[in-house]
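Example 3.2
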Amino acid sequence: MFGQNTHSVDPKGRVNIPIKFREKLGETFYLVKNTDQCLDVFPAKAWEELQAKIKTASQFNKAIREYQRLFISSAVESSTDRQGRVLIPQNLREFASIEKDVMIAGLGERLEIWSLDKWNERYVMEEFDMVAIAEELAKLGV
C-alpha cells in the first residue's frame, strides 16, 4: 500500500478508505495507536505477524510490557461499511487529535491515519535533512 490521500471525517467519526487501500487491507483490519500520535491500520495478516513477534519477546522486558499496555491494548478490530468508510472510535480520534480532515499514508504493509493538521505541521512545515535520513537508511542496509 503506497501513496497519500486526504479525506474528511464525518460527524460520526467515519472516514473513507480509498479503494486502492481497501483492496489490500482485506475485510478485517486493525486500528492501533502509533508512537507518533497517529493511527496505524494493519491488515489482519500483518497484525498477526506483529503479535507473533511480540509474543515471542520476553515478558520480562519492560519496553515490551509497556508497548502492550499502551498500544496493543488499544487495538480495535474493524472493517469498512458498504460505502468504504471505517469508524474510528472516539478514544483513538482523541489520541491522534483527529477532528475533521485526515491524511491517509500508505507505508507498504500498513497505513497511517494522521490528523491533517499534525501531518502538515510535521511533514510540510518542517524542513528535513534528507542527507541525514539517507545516511541512517544506508546504515540499515536500505
